Amino acid sequence: MGKRVEKVLQKWEVIYHGKGNKYGFEGAQQLDDYYDDRPALLKYLGLYWVGWPWANSVYVYPFEWNETSTVKETGEEKVLPRAEPTDFIYVADFTYAITTSGAETKDRIPTDELTLVTVAIRNPYRALFSGEDWMRRITSAINRHVRNFVSSKGYDELISLAEKKGAGGSVSVAETSNIWSSEFSIPIIALSSLLSDETEDSPAPRGLHDRYGVEIRTADLQSVELSGSPEAKRQHLEAVTKKYTATQEAAAETIKGQAKAAVVQMMGEKEAHALNARLKVIKEFGDAGMTLAGLDAIQESSKGPGNTIIWANDPLGKLGRALLETGKGGEKS
After folding, report:
1. Domain residues for 173?
2. CATH assignment at residue 107
3. 119: number of Cβ within 10 Å
4. Are residues 102 and 156 part of one domain?
5. I need a surface site. Which of 31, 115, 262, 322 has the fewest CB within 10 A?
6. Strand, coil or helix: what is 153?
7. CB 298 within 8 A of CB 332
8. pLDDT, tens digit (0-9, with 9 covering 90-100), for 140-183
9. Are residues 118 and 222 in the same domain?
10. How far is CA 47 from CA 38, 51, 85, in A?
11. pLDDT tens-digit profile of 218-273?
12. How many Cβ atoms are within 10 Å of 213's Cβ, its own excluded?
């Protein structure tokens, strides 16, 4: 490694030195073999000389993490907890599973989330000897964001987004992808530069990278499930189903009420129009008009099966007398 590069790098920093690198590595410096100074025999045998067994040893540390494997029969991701002494650390990208338990939605439904994050160790020395467990630190930071994200969504909305992720629906693929990217993935990736309680003005070191030598490369929410025992899940599911049913029934009643109001309004307008017409007849023909208007109303009321009309007070007699009086009045004139 040239002096020019050493001046700009922090000690133990893992960087890309291949083709297209931005640190000034050229020619043979871009090859991995350039940095392998083992004797030819050790290279051939695949061995590294650490030191005499009684004086030197490889550093071994306890490490706990979650991996996932795909169940062939169902295609689901199964979480595999791991805890064992480890004598190495990945500096290339590696995917870990982060589980979040009991995160409450906006409507107070407890849920469990599975998030897959791709992590790269950029500074192994700082990751191992900073005084804190780097995996626990990134798990805490990610869980905090997951809980905040879940609390901003209702259960139905959260499940709907998960189902429509990469599929069509009332929310388009582009809109769904934008929600996952802007509200979930990008803020988690940004933890590499700034933790949730930090700002650009916070004193260094800041973020997971500077504090622990860790960089989050990708973050993806894999699943959302109801929390608790099978019985608790059943109860939560019943509550969610009842809420959904009640919401749908309320929406149906609203639509029915709006339709009924529209019919009442239409009938009222029709009756008002008919009443105006009858009043006009009455005004023009007096008693005869009143009788005609009454007969028209009786005829209108008799429409439809099952309607019984009681004919009382000799409406036709009244009509005849009224018409007779009208005729006499015409002769006198």
Report:
1. 60-227
2. 3.30.479.30
3. 24
4. yes
5. 262
6. coil
7. no
8. 999 999 999 999 988 888 877 666 554 444 556 567 677 788 88
9. yes
10. 9, 12, 20
11. 999 888 888 877 766 666 666 666 665 666 556 666 766 666 666 666 766 676 67
12. 26
- Same-domain pairing of 203 and 254: no
Domain shared by 215 and 290, yes or no? no
> Which of 170, 192, 227 corresponds to the end of one domain?
227
Contacts of 283 (CB under 8 A, 6+ apart): 289
Tell me, yes or no, whether 206 and 306 share the same domain. no
> pTM, whole model, 2 decimals?
0.62
Length reported for the chain: 333
Q: What is the largest CA-CA distance in the chain?
A: 145
Which of 210, 211, 14 minimizes the C-alpha distance to 120? 14
What is the three-class DSSP state of 112?
Answer: strand
In terms of domains, do 187 and 215 share one?
A: yes
- CB under 8 A, 24+ apart: contacts of 53-57: none
- Type of residue found at 52: W
Q: Check whether residue 140 and residue 15 sit in a common domain.
A: no
Of 129, 56, 142, 55, the C-alpha closest to 103 is 142
Cα–Cα distance, 18 to 12 (Å, whole number) = 17
Close Cβ partners of 64 (under 8 Å, ≥ 6 residues apart): 81, 82, 83, 135
Tokens of 52: 């005499």
How far is 124 from 128, CA to CA, in rounded Å? 6
Which of 221, 98, 219 shows the shortest CA–CA distance to 158?
221
- Count of domains observed in the chain: 3
- Which of 57, 79, 101 lies at the terminal end of a domain, its last residue? 57
207 and 147 co-located in one domain:
yes
For tokens 């469990």, what's the residue? 112
Q: How many CB atoms lie within 10 A of CB 114?
A: 21
Contacting residues for 157 by C-beta, under 8 A, at least 6 apart: 106
C-beta atoms surrounding 48 within 10 Å: 10
SS3 8: coil
SS (H, E, C) 155-176: HHHHHHHHHHCCCCCCCCHHHH
Sort 247 into a burial class: Cβ within 10 Å, 0-12 / 13-18 / 19+.
exposed
